[in-house]
Amino acid sequence: xxxxxxxxxxxxxxxxxxxxxxxxxxxxxxxxxxxxxxxxxxxxxxxxxxxxxxxxxxxxxxxxxxxxxxxxxxxxxxxxxxxxxxxxxxxxxxxxxxxxxxxxxxxxxxxxxxxxxxxxxxxxxxxxxxxxxxxxxxxxxxxxxxxxxxxxxxxxxxxxxxxxxxxxxxxxxxxxxxxxxxxxxxxxxxxxxxxxxxxxxxxxxxxxxxxxxxxxxxxxxxxxxxxxxxxxxxxxxxxxxxxxxxxxxxxxxxxxxxxxxxxxxxxxxxxxxxxxxxxxxxxxxxxxxxxxxxxxxxxxxxxxxxxxxxxxxx
Amino acid sequence: xxxxxxxxxxxxxxxxxxxxxxxxxxxxxxxxxxxxxxxxxxxxxxxxxxxxxxxxxxxxxxxxxxxxxxxxxxxxxxxxxxxxxxxxxxxxxxxxxxxxxxxxxxxxxxxxxxxxxxxxxxxxxxxxxxxxxxxxxxxxxxxxxxxxxxxxxxxxxxxxxxxxxxxxxxxxxxxxxxxxxxxxxxxxxxxxxxxxxxxxxxxxxxxxxxxxxxxx
Amino acid sequence: xxxxxxxxxxxxxxxxxxxxxxxxxxxxxxxxxxxxxxxxxxxxxxxxxxxxxxxxxxxxxxxxxxxxxxxxxxxxxxxxxxxxxxxxxxxxxxxxxxxxxxxxxxxxxxxxxxxxxxxxxxxxxxxxxxxxxxxxxxxxxxxxxxxxxxxxxxxxxxxxxxxxxxxxxxxxxxxxxxxxxxxxxxxxxxxxxxxxxxxxxxxxxxxxxxxxxxxxxxxxxxxxxxxxxxxxxxxxxxxxxxxxxxxxxxxxxxxxxxxxxxxxxxxxxxxxxxxxxxxxxxxxxxxxxxxxxxxxxxxxxxxxxxxxxxxxxxxxxxxxxxxxxxxxxxxxxxxxxxxxxxxxxxxxxxxxxxxxxxxxxxxxxxxxxxxxxxxxxxxxxxxxxxxxxxxxxxxxxxxxxxxxxxxxxxxxxxxxxxxxxxxxxxxxxxxxxxxxxxxxxxxxxxxxxxxxxxxxxxxxxxxxxxxxxxxxxxxxxxxxxxxxxxxxxxxxxxxxxxxxxxxxxxxxxxxxxxxxxxxxxxxxxxxxxxxxxxxxxxxxxxx
Amino acid sequence: xxxxxxxxxxxxxxxxxxxxxxxxxxxxxxxxxxxxxxxxxxxxxxxxxxxxxxxxxxxxxxxxxxxxxxxxxxxxxxxxxxxxxxxxxxxxxxxxxxx
Lengths: 314, 216, 543, 99
What we know:
The complex is a heterotetramer of chains A (314), B (216), C (543) and D (99).
Chain A: H1 12-43, H2 60-88, E1 96-103, E2 106-111, E3 116-118, E4 120-124, E5 128-135, E6 140-144, E7 149-153, E8 159-164, E9 169-175, E10 188-193, H3 195-204, H4 211-221, H5 224-228, E11 251-253, E12 259-261, H6 264-272, H7 295-310
Parallel strand pairs in A: 1-5, 4-10
Antiparallel strand pairs in A: 1-2, 2-3, 5-8, 6-7, 6-9, 9-10, 11-12
Chain B: H1 15-50, H2 52-59, H3 64-89, H4 93-124, H5 140-176, H6 186-211
Chain D: H1 2-25, H2 40-53, H3 61-87
Helix pairs in contact in D: 1-2
């Protein structure tokens, strides 16, 4: 039985300092409350003849005193907690992205190199890692106690979580949002490895094609190339459709006048609900693929469209 | 009969004490109803926030004419009932009964227009968010959510209207049995509060359903 | 034990002897009889929830779970949650002690709307029957929080039946709350201004404000959940454009104020008992009274702290965090005021006082751990783990249930006309304190180590702490059966109670025990301020 | 008593005028986010019915207390409830991936 949890990420010690500070404040207040209570129980018990003296009836000076002290302490704790919270949920720009899909009672992980894992996540230490997570059915929660981090995974939305692992090792992964019968089995292993070990692990995962390459084949099979052209640059397509080369990350003017940045969510919505994201100057002829393309194929197609962004002849 | 000798519950000091308590009790009940409908208004805000286009597309298919007529009906019924209350305070029992009957008729015609005509038209245009929902495609989601809000809120408001009609009917019966005098008319006032409150709920729902999504 | 001279109580006639037929009990509008009807019903539900708790602790003795199927375990902890929250904790003090004592404390003959009070009990019983039906035909596996889309689409439990039961129980709460507010406003005895009222009435007033203004939102939420589950309408279903977080917002808008409904009456009971057994005026009456009201108001603004990691916006999370710290301040003030009351008092350690002291200790631990989960940074690690389970059990079981037992023992002579056995009462208080700490303190450590809540099985390294907790649970179970035994015993063989066994101030002690049906022969006039305890030369303490 | 009846009638006319105002306003080509401005007449109508027909001014003072409490709690529910969707950042990938 161990009473101490390894601090496996850069943010873990900070969370622990905050919890420790809260613990110390609580112990101080508890000592005061229990101490006073025991003192009064002994000193002022019914039988004791100790002199009670004059009773203070002007109490508000004491009351406002300890109220203000409590308010100041609480405000300090709030600021400390909020600052840590903001840093926990705003990833650095250069974080390495790993895609996580929660499904009833298992975790599917997709690395950008195409490797995929079930109920396990291998990651390198020493660099910020960003998990882009979604769920295929109910609300799950990706929680790693050793990293002091957790976030609910909602269906129909991308949720984000980032950390930078420090100590190599194997840590528990739990699902901490009740998701039905197998909620307790929906656990996994997070394996933090040094960079070279991680590279070796990537290779021996087999030369399965990268996400983008797999996305390209899906792009063909689902007939996207029919309208958007083979390389997404409208080559040889009968229908007028927006060019996808260089689209990712750029600003897109929609038919209803709003301008959005073409990010993961935008592309995902275009594929699932094309009419809501109609590009200005194009007919709403694109069919909706909702229900036909599964979440992990969707990630591959998005990765492929993202790879087209860099192919632009800049 | 002077004020003090009027019959009153054994835990009250006098009748005025009891009638003031009854009116305060009804106001507190109306506060709970405000929160009850507040929750459906918050869901209107959420559903409209996440899919404004579809939501307003659904709103444009509502029967604006019937809704507006219904609003005028309810405002008038609230006026007539308040007049009835003023009449009984002045001792004119006959006028109270007439006002209550008019209020009852207006309330009943609201329900006929609402559930008879408007719901019939909505169902025939299959706007009920079932399987064969009229608007599909991209705007389908938002429109379906609008009609969920529309049917849930108008159904709940309808149930409150039916409750109101029962209460007004009960007031008419007691007035005909000559139970109300200028010194004792608490039930009339309490039912009046409930009736005007149901009218207030409809004023809010009318704007949320028929008007906000109406624009181009 | 005092000399067993059975003084025949000269109060032969009381509300208990005012009609013995079943009809006189089931159709009574006497607030005292309705209080007893409620006492029986919530005790029944307390033992159903308690049995479920025992099964949970039994299951967690071994890492792979003693109960074979996780499905059964999910249904057991959901039953524990639903029955304990809506059928014991929320009604407990207001409907039993509150119903009995409020008119007496006010010097009134009955509540403002007696028939509404009886309707409230019948709604509670109907709701109870529907929830028992839904539990016995299979129960629900969504947890007492019913998060969508699990509860609306993927759960195969009896969600709609349970939701209907809670919907009906909600109206029973609204009826009670409405009755108390109007009574406290309109039926005070002549001379009893707001600042001459006992603090118990203020805290019940604050509780009723929350009951009346929060429960309607729960009613609408459950209607929407029912629609979502039956017609798949999409309000909470992201595939159809809805937002599952809308359900969580609406649910917690009710459920956080509901936890203050559970604790505020406890504050009131303790604020009655500490002055009575310290023979001293309460310390800072105005502060305590306005703390209750401010808790009732601010408790409506803090619900977002249940959703810090649920995917809501990080800026709204910060607003909810600062407001959550704000709501903790009045509770801290109350604890210091109780200690101030004991300062320079003449403290006697009867059973109610021991339960009240236990309340102060355990509630302080519960309140302080609330600060852990209100700090955003710490909550990300601690939420959804056993840390949160321990936090709310410290506040609800350590706080609320101890206060309920304290009040039960304090007013037992007034309710039944009999004295409970003093030594057994003190023993019960001690065992509850020990058993409770042994059960729930290890869970704080488990929570920090990351053991998730609602888990049928867990990694082996958490086993020792879980076994410790389960052992504590057995002691706690015994500690809860003890009062049932000796209080029932006291009904028949208990010593006859005088009108004012504790020498306490308050109008309820100026009438006979048990009181007449109309409480007072003539309405008392209130002149002196509350808790006007002269320093006792001779202590009117039973030998 | 005729003054009271006159007040009732004036209130009724005011309500119809407000109804016409919001009815007309709903046809203005407002931007989708500005459409809730149409609800201003609604607030005035509710106030009119509350004060004149329901006579919130009469009766014991707690009647006004309950009316104000209802509006305060409703604004707490809607105010803090809107806070989350308004400020919730739809997760978008910084443009680092284009580097």
